[in-house]
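Thread: assembly with ligand

MN 10:42: here's the input set. Chains plus the small molecule as SMILES. Want everything predicted jointly, not piecewise.
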Amino acid sequence: MKITDVKPYAVWVGHRNQMLVKVETDEGIYGWGESGFSGRELGVKGIVEHYREFLLGRDPMRRGALWQEMYRSQYFEGGRTLTAAISAIDIALHDIVGKKLGVPVYELLGGKNRDTIPVFATTSAPYGPEMIDEAREFMARGITAFRMSYDKMGTDTDGLFEPRESMANSAEWLIKTREALGNHAIIGIDYHHRLNVAETASFCQMMPPHTLDFIEEPIRDETPEAYESLRKLTDVPFAIGEEFASKWQFLPYIERGITNYARVDICNVGGFTESMKVAGWAESHYIDLMPHNPLGPICTAASVHLSAAVPNFSWLEVNMERAENPDLEIFPEQVLFEGNVYAVPDKPGLGVEVDESKLNVPFKFWDPPHLHRRDGSVTNW
Ligand SMILES: [Mg+2]
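BT 11:07: finished. Tokens for the full assembly:
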């Protein structure tokens, strides 16, 4: 079997751009992958076009070797754009190999550890009693892990984000949520790296012990030492890693105990090939994967196969709106959400079909909100 084409699609799907890759072969078998470097899709498309030049004519079964070649056959190694492109191609190659062998992708990863995939959901109501009601509804339907919606995160405030105002309000409502739902609820918050070390420490100290089961990315991740410093100031478990673009970025976080849930993003970290290495490494430190799953049906399918195959797993992120209203026009076959879990598909490959003719809405320029403080200075999205 030989690769005959590698087609990048940076297209508008529904309400956002998606960066998809189709890899075709001379046997008529093809695979789909998705890249997770949201907001910079055209950069990834350019890298896929570079890789296409040497992937044509190559054997897709040798996916591990092709990963090495894509990562190492250049002087300037690593980086999010490169591994986002490698991720999409690696996922597509696994789709091809699964179809060729007639097995679902999880069989290529060691087989299933679980039959269904537990999820964590995110509330959508603003902070207030409705948010607690929404969490209560999650629990009633068997989703006991959830993240609370953020307060004043800059999306409803014309890009204004003031950390201290957000922290005070968040702490108040998180305390009320814990009081209302008790210890059976698993409660987290994603601060989307909008705080600094001192702010995060104060935020955690505003709440009694076990208000939170995890805090996701309160600060930026460039400096592991900053998380080590933060670790000394709070005992709330950290959920870190969705931006990480290789096992090397996970290295200090796993080895120094500064991620407690590994937020692996299969569409950024380097596909199945790299995710399985991170998973094994995390397993040796008794850290569960809590995969990031913010994109489209290909990302979800890949995340479900990964989640099925690893022993050390907590919950897969679910976007309830997307899970309950799947886009069956563009993706007529996809992994389906069954009330409170994802089903693990048994079809060969990923179990996703894409109607290529419907990928016809061109890329639209979109940038994340550029957040600012009240004094006019720039802060993190
Ligand atoms: Mg996050």
